[in-house]
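hiii, so i know i said id send this last week but things got crazy w the move. better late than never?? heres the sequnce for the chain we talked about at the cafe, plus the structure i predicted for it. fair warning i was half asleep when i ran it
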Amino acid sequence: MLKAGIVGLPNVGKSTLFNALTRTRKAAAANFPFCTIEPNVGIVNVPDARLDELAKLSKSDKTIYAAFEFVDIAGLVRGASEGEGLGNQFLSHIREVDAVVQVVRCFEDEDIHHVAGSVDPVRDIEVINTELILADMAALKKRAERLQKGVRMGDKTAKAEVAIVEKLLPHLDAGKPALTMEFSDEEKRLVKEFFLLSAKPTLFACNVREEDLADVSGNAFVAAVKKYASEHLGSEAVVISAQIESELAELSTEDAKEFLAGLGVEDSGVGLLIRAAYHLLGLQTYFTTGPKETRAWTIHKGDKAPAAAGVIHSDFERGFIAAETVAFDELMKFGSQAKARESGRLRIEGKEYEVADGDVLEFRFNV
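okay and structure toks below
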């Protein structure tokens, strides 16, 4: 299962957000730095209204959502790449995740301590990014030193890796994360083995006050984060209120909807964040449905039908014959698979079919 790590400076709302995401109280949330030491891990369902509609259509006994892991990682501080604030330990936790959700504080509150003494989300982002870049530079230099013997012996892989290091170091030294470096397909394959911290796909979570949640147009902090994320990383920024989301986690679904409506908010910020993180990882969903269960299955964008079948069971991929498929919208429009079939909207697709997000599939296989 893929993992998204929640990172940021101390006291920006990471642990409160993690508790809201996972509907638990696993993570300590306190008004002092480093209240989280060991990372907390929680499995999170990906909200998807389509799944509920399908389950109702099929009168399914069970509904199973797509899911992935969120990891609450302790706050980083300036100097983390050199061991400040238990930095080496925290950086190793980031190395183990597939994507990063960077929480930034976008509100003023004299009662909540900020490690830098003032609120400036862009500065906070740059502190985190700088530490990740410095850690990557140190790791790359060590890697290049280890590869020198292979280079002298004419090892092609060692030469290719050293060439990438030499290409990357000036880019990182200019303060640019590895995420923004352009690589060929072969270089991308090799870079994956470097496990670079600044190469992780990154999403920003702007933590705001309750009164800002319905309309952030007047929040200069949020505007600055969105501008920075877009211009410097080509990334997305999602607005959340960690404290409100933590309170919502205590309510039933209906009560939570009523509470949000009272705030003038249609969708939970956590819901938006989960979906954004899911897509950040290059994931999408297809469905299977029937009286026993309706289920969302996670695949990568671009996966073809046999690979999608293999997510259910390796036998499905090995013995793949065909996929009976209909788009979710078409199925809901016609009201049943039988009517969709009669109307020619339910198709038989072969091995080269690229599965689309929201496809409702049934596989034919033989092993």
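btw Residues 137 and 169 are 6 Å apart (CA to CA). thought thatd interest u
miss u guys!!
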